[in-house]
Amino acid sequence: MFTKGGKVDLYVFVAVIVLLSLGLVMVFSASSVMGLANSGNPYYYVQRQTILALIGLALMFLLMKVDYHIFRPLALPGLVLSFILLVVVLFVGTGTGGATRWIRIAGFNLQPSEVAKLVMVNYVAVYMSNKREKARKFFTGILPILLITAVQFGLIMREPDFGTGVALVFTVMVILFAGGVHLGQFALVGALAAPLMYYLLTMKEYRVRRLFAFLDPWSDPTDTGWNVIQSLLAIGSGGLFGLGLGKSRQKFSYLPEHHTDFIFAILCEELGFLGGVAVILLFFVIAWRGLRIAMGAPDLYGSFLAIGITSMIAFQALLNIGVVTGSLPVTGIPLPFISHGGSSLLMSLAAIGILLNISRQCRD
To answer: Residue ranges per domain, the chain?
Structure first.
């Protein structure tokens, strides 16, 4: 059950610890005003985040030592459980802004879509390691995975949570690509999925408005373009070196979700362009070393699992930073290890623990 010997990848380990530490600092800086206003305690949000970070670190250290092969027989039960949670949240879940994304369990908000991402990575890794030769065939290869992914995506969109749904689909596609699926099959899937994506983007008025706001946020500066404009003002006002830690102006109710989805803007405002670049480089280190771990994994299962975990975290970071900088349409998705949020933080640290265990078993 436990892996003996072997050293963890220090690059990934250090990068995650630095991001997590920086995240706690930025959560306090970004949320102190809101915490004081809402609860009379400026430490309210960072205290919760610190507790979750400690739990997540304990989970990460445990999974660093547990042989990742233990998750192989859990692929199907985990998938079934994730489907159950995604259905249950639609009936008994809680949320804000018209979205129902969390299940309240023992005082903790569990986000089933975050669990589903990691479970799906494990399931696809097992599937591809067992049936890699069949993956080159559409109907007997990737079609079952595509159908499962489509159902999960549909359930997540019912919440709705477009950003997490896109991250799930992208991660699955990366694993399939790494497994040798022919590019022609991806082109076919893309052609078939294009009308559906168009429908999903246009079926709700607010999504259409968000899309137009992405193209020109100043066309509606007080409504759909507000988040992007305020985010860009925060980033721009930070300059090269930033205004200084704790000196953000946008956190005073100008920038919505400034401690969660848009925390990167506050980071750039306070730590400047150099602080933002440092964060991006740390995620680049995780992506680079994650791919190295995948190439050196002792078996195909470990390789696909490492690729899935790496792409899941890297794409989520890319999507979040793209939204914050106005490079992508606004969609709610946290920045791994930095944004305030329990399920995302715990699942990300658990995923890193598995990745580090694979690194301990890599071939030299």
So the answer is: 10-360
